[in-house]
Amino acid sequence: MSSPSRFAALAAPLFLLTYGIFRYVDGRDGEHGPGVAWSVGHTFMLAAFLCFAAVVVGLRRAVREPSVRRASATTTMTVLGLVGAAAGVRVTLGDLFPDADGFPLPGPLHDTGPLLLLLGLVGLMIDMAIHEPHRLPTRSPVAVVAGFAAIGANLDLLPLAAGLLLAGLMPLARAPSLERVHAS
User: Are 165 and 13 in contact (CB under 8 A)?
Assistant: First the structure.
């Protein structure tokens, strides 16, 4: 993976953690809603979605010499991941700027955006763990799924989710061997 993608693999969970902290601060009065903590937290959430998109692209680029079938599958997973990240960006922007005139996000895409991101990201990670196990441990996609499950269960679990996502994505951030090798 490229340096920006490796940075994004660390930044996305840390941005989610920061969002979770600001969400906690925002909710101390019993409500979550517009205010400084809400806006700052959602800005970090926006950054997390952008970082997840960078990780998806980095994983796709790191696939070495895929067969036609594998290339098709990784392209599909990349599209799913990017559509999910884009849906997350759109929802977050809608939360930050509720009065802005923008394109509406269809209800199903609004609700399934995080799932599409998860499917694309984890699909690419599983592909790499299966086809190139020396580059990514099999526990990484499991940790990412557990992190997303924690978010889906309760947003108050964001700190736990961030830790699980960090554990799952850290091998991508540390591994210089993920650079794509081109045949000469």
Answer: yes
| 70 in any annotated domain | yes
Domain that holds residue 141: 3-178
pLDDT grade for 14, boundaries at 50, 70 and 90: very high
- Is the residue at 114 inside a domain? yes
Rounded Cα–Cα distance for residues 88 and 9 (Å): 17
Cα 83 to Cα 13, 62, 76, 120, distances in angstroms: 19, 20, 11, 9
Q: What does the buried/exposed string (b/e) look like for 142-155 if buried means 16 or more CB atoms within 10 Å of the residue's CB?
A: bbbbbbbebbeeee
Rounded to whole angstroms, the Cα distance separating 100 from 7 reads 31
**Residue 160: helix, strand or coil by DSSP?**
helix
Query: How is residue 15 written in tokens?
Result: 């941005």
User: Does 183 fall in a domain?
Assistant: no
pTM, full prediction:
0.89
Task: Provide the number of structural domains found in the chain.
Answer: 1
Residue with tokens 């994004």: 8
Three-class SS state of 134? coil
> CA-to-CA distance for 147 and 161, rounded, in angstroms?
4
Q: Given this model, what pLDDT does residue 104 score?
A: 67
Asked if residue 34 is part of any domain, the answer here is: yes
